[in-house]
Every structure is written in structure tokens, then in C-alpha cells.
Amino acid sequence: MSQLISVELVKKGVALVTMQRPERRNALSIALLTELMNTIKQLEASPFEGSRVRVVILRGAGPVFCAGMDLAEATQADKVSESARRIAGALHLLRYSPLVTIAAVHGGAYAGGAGMVAACDMAVGSSDVQIAFPEARRGLLPALISEVLKSKVREGDLRELFLVGTPIDAMRAQQIGLLQRVVDPAQLLDAAVTMADGVLAGGPLTIIDTKRLLEELYEGSGTHGAIDASDQAIEDHLRARNSAEAVEGLRAFLEKRNPSWMND
């Protein structure tokens, strides 16, 4: 369907959506996020290859699932706001789509990439996966992803993830709720499809209503409240991204050096 997002019907009712930017570790560029959102909306609205899709399995091409926000793009002042809005929009769509979303995570998921994992209804990870939130080391706030993570991870664990920033392995990710299953890398897609089979066994409208029930259960205000919270997250994120620390942290990353505050 596009050069940055591919779609394959792996079985009736289940679409495999793959982020196709392996040369940049599937970094979340504006273009990739736009195509991802358009793809999911199309799958929601109409049949794909003659099948009404009910489950989307999200994965990344290449050695890692997703490296997070495109930091090179994030240094371009004219793209900062649009990038933030696209990330927030993709997270919201993955979480609140009537489709059931399953992340199939391999290699690594970092920052916004790990946020994509948390935004999905469920996640299966390969045993070799690494997950990390290095935003503070770049001078950034994890504001955009905090909304989806708070419903998956306990407060103390989330504080460790955000404040310490050290990568965690698959077993730790499962322990704290970021992954629901951990499997051998060769079994990753099969495990995600098996999970999708369980969803397909439920009534289509009942599954949609169950997702809404869970939204109300964990958020109280439903999707409207989530949209308001997303707007606030965008504001917080943009404030941090335009800070001096963000400028220095991103420049240091691109220049492959330590940011200045590590030399103090």
C-alpha cells in the first residue's frame, strides 16, 4: 500500500502491518506515522483483500521493532510540532481503534517505539528484545508516551524506566506489563497470530464493546478524556522539545558524543 508501510493478510480477519524503514531502524518520521495512521483507518473502514479485518499485528522490518522518534527530523524547527502531533495521533489510534492491535516486538523498542508497543492492546516479544526510554538522556520529556504507558506499567516501574533509562530485557518487560508473552524469535509471528485467533473467536461487536469497556474501566472518561489528555501531552512534549537541553541532547546524539551535562 505504501513504501513505508506494508500490509499483508496473514489469515482471514488478521492483517500484518509492517513498518518498512529498516535503514533507520523504523524511526518514527512524519511520513511513516502518516502512512501508518492512514493504513489503519483504511483497514477499519473497508475490507482488505476481500476480508473484513478485525486484528492488526504491528511489527518492524529489519533488526529492531522501532528506534522511536526520528531524532534527525526532530532537530528541524519547522517539523517539531507536526512530528509531535503525528506521534500522539498514532498512539491514540492504536489504542482506541475498533480493531484489536497486537505488537510483535523483536530486537529493540526504544522511546516512542516502546510507546507504540504500549499503545497496542497486547504485545508479544521475542526473548532477545531490549526496551528502553532514553528521553532524559536526550533532554526530552516522555510526555507523549506517558499516557499509554501509565495504564500498562505500575508507577514505581514507570519511574525507573523514565528516570534511570537503562534498557530492560524481555523477561523484565513481561514482568512489569509491557509484554504479555515472551517467545523464541522464530516463534514471534506465530505467537501473535495465535493471540489473534483468540480475538477472532469472540463476537466482532462484543470485542469492540469490550475494548470500550476496558477504556472506561481504566480511564473513567473514555476516549474524549483521552483526547484531552493527549492535547496536554503534546503541549508538555513541545515545551520540553524546544528547551536548551533538548537541543543539546539531540545534537549530541547525532554527533555521537556525550551531551554537555554528562561532562559537568
Runs in which pLDDT lies below 50 for 5 or more consecutive residues are none
Helix content: 40-55%
Given this structure, which CATH class of the domain at 5-184 is correct? Answer: Alpha Beta
CATH topology of the domain at 5-184: 2-enoyl-CoA Hydratase, Chain A, domain 1
* Name given to the CATH architecture of the domain at 5-184: Alpha-Beta Complex
Run of helices and strands: EEHEHHEEHEEHHEHEHHHH
Question: Which structural category fits the helices and strands?
Answer: alpha/beta
Overall number of strands: 9
Distance between the termini: 49 Å
What is the residue-averaged pLDDT?
A: 92
Biggest sheet record: 6 strands, mixed
Radius of gyration: 18 Å
Give me the number of helical elements.
11
CATH H-level superfamily title of the domain at 5-184 = 2-enoyl-CoA Hydratase, Chain A, domain 1
Provide the spatial order of strands within the biggest beta sheet. Answer: 1-2-3-4-6-9
Report the principal-axis shape: globular
Beta-strand content bin: 15-25%
Could you please describe the fold and organization of this structure?
The protein has 264 residues and is of the alpha/beta class. The protein has a domain of 180 residues: Alpha-Beta Complex (2-enoyl-CoA Hydratase, Chain A, domain 1), CATH 3.90.226.10. 49% of the residues lie in helices and 16% in strands. The strands form 2 sheets. Strands 1-2-3-4-6-9 form a 6-stranded mixed sheet, sandwiched between helices. A 3-stranded mixed sheet has the order 5-7-8. A hairpin with a 2-residue loop joins strand 1 and strand 2. The longest helix has 20 residues. The chain is globular, with a radius of gyration of 18 Å. The mean pLDDT is 92.
